[in-house]
Amino acid sequence: MANFIHRRVSWTQEADGSPTPQHRLQISPAALQRSRGASEEEVLLVATVIDSTFFKLSPPLQGTGRGRGITLDRPSPRTVLGGLVLAVRAGNHPVRDLSQAIKLTFKHNKQFQVETGACVFWQESPLQDGTGYWNTSGCDTSDNGSEFICSCNHLSFFAVLVNPALSVDESDAVNLSYITYIGSALSIFFTVISLIIYICLQRRRPEKAIGVHLQLTGALLCLHLSFLLCCFWVWQLNEKEDDWVCRGLGLLLHWSLLATFTWTALEGFHLYLLLVRVFNIYIRRYLLKLSLVGWGLPTLIAVVCGISGVYGKYSLELRDADNRNSTAEICWMSSHRLSVSFVTTVAFPCLVILCNSCMLGLVVFKLWGLRAGRGGAESGGDSEKMTREKWMKLWKDCATVLGLNCVLGLPWGLASTTYISLSGIYVFTILNSLQGVFMFLWSLALSCKSRSDNNSSVRDPSTQKMMTTSFNN
């Protein structure tokens, strides 16, 4: 049989073999010597692959914790690589606790989409009921990109448990594309309206917070507009065509993304000055200095990347659950410039989201402190009226926190969920393609608050400080 090894080998030499093209084994002379009989010059080596469905898992409570290694007794979400188990046996004596490990190779080429893997062996249940569990004891795992190499100190039934890579089928890919295009188009429309609202608010009552929101909204408008232009322009190009317009649009998209995250970071910095350094703040030409950072830093990075020839058509190979290949393209950075893309579009945004998450936590803490302090002072009076006012203030606080979530760019942090499930991809796509809509709702809330403040002499200081502030010019 092509997937079966059955031969006698000398115990003084290393034995190797490949029962299938995807499996290979190397057994050291020390293991062969321990497995042979007292008078035998050769050792019978048997190796084959077995369907993993023949291995029945014990109930979790019976399998968990047995053995000296980590027990992997649940079939989900980890599965056996290729659905095959490599069985290896030499001689008539059990072999364990070897000083020189045996090596087992499991290839994972393009037909297996995997993320991480762990070498395991089959441990029979002590109940002797024909079940068992996967155990990692005595096995080390290494991955060179195309194959898993297991180094184990015993002989048994071996396999590699893997996390299957998340795949998106063709229908979901089309749905996500439509969601992105429609969401970005809506964001462009509503960010234009938001800009008009912020300009009117700035003329009516000049405040630096409104100025920062205005700049962030402008960056978001550039981001969504350049994204749609990059997507639509690449459709006009041939498969291997890459013109100067595509490179220019890639530069514009990169610059807009950097500007968006930079102004998001400046929103967090502005909130820090508002909540932490409340008194004795004097920053000369505050908005001008923020603008130099918010627009100057992205421009400098984009120009340097442009001179370095970073931009061009980016191609991403996609494969669905049925192993059908497709290619997604966009005017962005060239596929071989992954290091530049990682630093500027992964590391920098992660740092911004981390800092702004801390700022949002500080906002929640401040709101909770203000409410607790005012709750004690207003303990006397009509209880029904106080309850109604309490719920109204709680609703305002929740709306403020949700609005700051969008202003601080925290929905970008949902990118981590795209590696977990398909629903995570949908949530991330919907929320981030509609950022312009959320910014419009925030501008609308500020506009309504500005009108209510003008019509009333009583203000709620807890949300007032979170939403508006002014510094000296």
What's the quick description here?
This protein is of the alpha+beta class. It has eleven helices and 16 strands.
Notes on the structure:
Mean pLDDT is about 80; it is low at about 60-75, about 460-465 and about 465-473. Strands 1, 4, 5, 6, 7, 8, 10, 11 and 14 form a nine-stranded mixed beta sheet that branches. This protein has helices at about 30-35, 60-65, 170-205, 210-235, 245-275, 285-305, 340-375, 385-405, 420-435, 435-455, 460-465; strands at about 5-10, 15-20, 25, 40-50, 55, 70, 80, 85-90, 100-105, 115-125, 130-135, 140-145, 145-150, 155-165, 310-320, 325-335. Strand 15 and strand 16 (about 325-335) form a beta hairpin. The chain starts with a strand and ends in a 6-residue tail after the last helix. Helix 3 packs parallel to helix 9 (about 420-435) and helix 5 packs parallel to helix 7 (about 340-375). About 30% of the residues are buried. The chain is α+β, with helices and mostly antiparallel strands and about 475 residues long. The protein is elongated and about 100 Å long.
